[in-house]
Amino acid sequence: MDIVEILLKILFAILVVVVIMTIAAYSVLAERKVASWIQGRVGPNRTALPGLSAIPVLGRFLVRMGMWQPLADGVKFLFKEDPLPGHVKKWYYCLAPVVALVPSLSTVAVLPFGAYWVNGVEYPLVLANVDIGILFILAISSLTVYGIVMAGWAANSKYPYFGSIRSSAQMISYELAMGMSVIPVFMWANGPATGFGDLTLFGVVAAQKDLWLGIWMPLPAFVFLVSLFAETNRLPFDMPESETELVGGFHTEYGSFKFGLFFVGEYAAMAIGSAVFVVLFLGGWNFLPTFGFLPDWVANPWATWGWFGSVVSVLFFIGKTLTFIFLFIWVRWTLPRFRYDQVMNLGWKYLVPLAVASIIIYAIVIALWDTAVTVDHIKPETFGPAPQ
Amino acid sequence: MAKVLERKPLTFAEKTYLPQVLGGLKITFKNMLGKKVTMEYPEERPNIPDNYRGVPTLVHDPNGREKCVSCQLCEFVCPPKAIRITPGSIPEGDEHEHVEKAPQDFEINMLRCIYCGMCQEVCPEEAIFLQDVYSLVGTSREELVFHKKKLYELGGTRPDQHYKWDVKKAAEEEALAGNGHH
User: Fold this and answer.
1) Angle of the A3-38 helix axis to the B18-33 helix axis, nearest 10
2) Between A and B, how many residue pairs show a Cβ–Cβ distance under 8 A?
3) Which of A305, B34, B83, B148 has its CA 20 to 30 A from that of A48?
């Protein structure tokens, strides 16, 4: 790898992180706006930028939509006084917000967010197309809980401690269901029909040309989605925060920029969780499923448009992701929080058995389908390189 | 007799929470597209009803006469003792000389006032009214003790139904002319 390639990778990485952070910042705005609308309010509509807000209609509209609010919020978080409470364990107290944010941003590395086509062959737009894609995401994203546990413990006071204990129990319970719910996806993606033999997320998207997995695997998709809500600590599972009972939960003792890191980390995790869901169950950047009889271009109508097609595929992917972020927000302002024992019940008694059942059911279905239909009609070129 | 409700066991659909969750999502979505109830305050102001009890004010009658005659009834009735009146007389030669008395100073301490409206109720001259001023700001205690000038500025002019003092003056003049009952 020469130096230019390394520099390009770094540039891409910075670009992706910037995009994710922007999405996270504007998710905060979306959260405030949607919350207001659902509650019959108007939401942030005052923040104005001197020059830009003077544009006749558009400037006024952007101000009404609160477009500059994230900027003001960010500046506030940066310049507020950052007190260090006397009773905290300082090293871990300062480390925790970083530990909470970094995993969310690291998972982006293996997440394909678009595609480009060379001579009709599809390649993923991804920072690192590693073979263990989904394992990497599941492994790294579960590290977020260390940030929360560390914050709760280092804060050295009872409410954060409760919050972090709850959080760790919840994360462990729902990770199990989450991990098992993706198994049917990879059983299908690695079947003889598609010919991939690894855990890359790109393979999953490529395997969804005919039918998005969310359509014929609603059960794993549902289990995954519910676990995602729990993993990202969103209502109705926001045990670690539960501001009505635990003051602020794990971040009670945090203020200003450190709190800002937790906050952004939470929304970044939400954005990336949505993106993973889109990749696994909603066909990633594919336009529409072909259902096996529609012409092939329906899946990616922009495959022949060159670089512009790639841009469109990325935008389409981001659009799908934003829809899911909206769902997260919408659910948050609809449902009350589950009680702690209900969370545990739901996780262990319903979601884990459901995930196991869906593994068994889809294993049988996929095996039958592959032996009855696919193997007879298999096209030799769809196989990967022949085994040695 | 108390009515005993039979509590049916939950159906399977109810146990999954899903129908309720979807119903809730539908409601919040409808609400999201619905009309907003927020009033954007400094630009929009609420409609103040006529009988609103805002800041107490002193008023003039349509002829420009200050109606208060400093009888001090409001001062005596005021539960938190927010009112202090320095009585004075109307100088001779004034247009309203026959009314005889007017306050030299009229103080209402707005930090004490409880907006009960008893001063308005007790006033025999209909001179003090709690009107539509609801927003009160001051940066010092002195600033929030309203004096006569400020109170008349806030009060303005209100219509008068009796013109009590004009009627009285006319009757007196008629009596002086010799054809009255007095």
Assistant:
1) 80
2) 36
3) B34
CATH class given for the domain over B56-168: alpha beta
The answer to whether the CB atoms of B38 and A42 lie below 8 A apart is yes
User: In this predicted model, what pLDDT tens digit does every residue of A220-261 receive, in sequence order?
Assistant: 898 999 988 888 888 788 877 777 777 777 788 888 888 888
Closest Cα of chain A to B9: distance in Å? 18
Rounded Cα gap, residues A325 and A317, in angstroms: 13
In sequence order, what are the beta bridge partners of B111? Answer: none
Kindly identify which residue of chain A lies nearest to residue B34, measuring between CA atoms.
A40
A260-315 pLDDT, tens per residue? 888 888 888 888 889 889 988 888 787 777 776 777 777 777 777 777 878 888 88
pLDDT tens digits for range B62-98 = 888 888 899 999 999 999 999 999 998 888 888 888 8
Q: B29: which chain A residues are within 8 Å (Cβ-Cβ)?
A: 330
What is the average pLDDT across B92-118? 88
Cα three-residue angle A23-A117-A201, rounded to 5 degrees: 55
**DSSP output for A100-167:** HHHHHHHGGGG---EEEEETTEEEEE-S---TTHHHHHHHHHTTHHHHHHHHHHHTTSHHHHHHHHHH
Domain assignments of chain B as residue spans, ordered by start = 56-168
The dihedrals phi and psi of A86, each to the nearest 5 degrees, come to -70, -25
Q: Would an 8 Å CB–CB cutoff place A330 in contact with chain B?
A: yes
Contact B127, B69 (CB under 8 A): yes
Please report the ipTM that was assigned to this predicted complex.
0.75
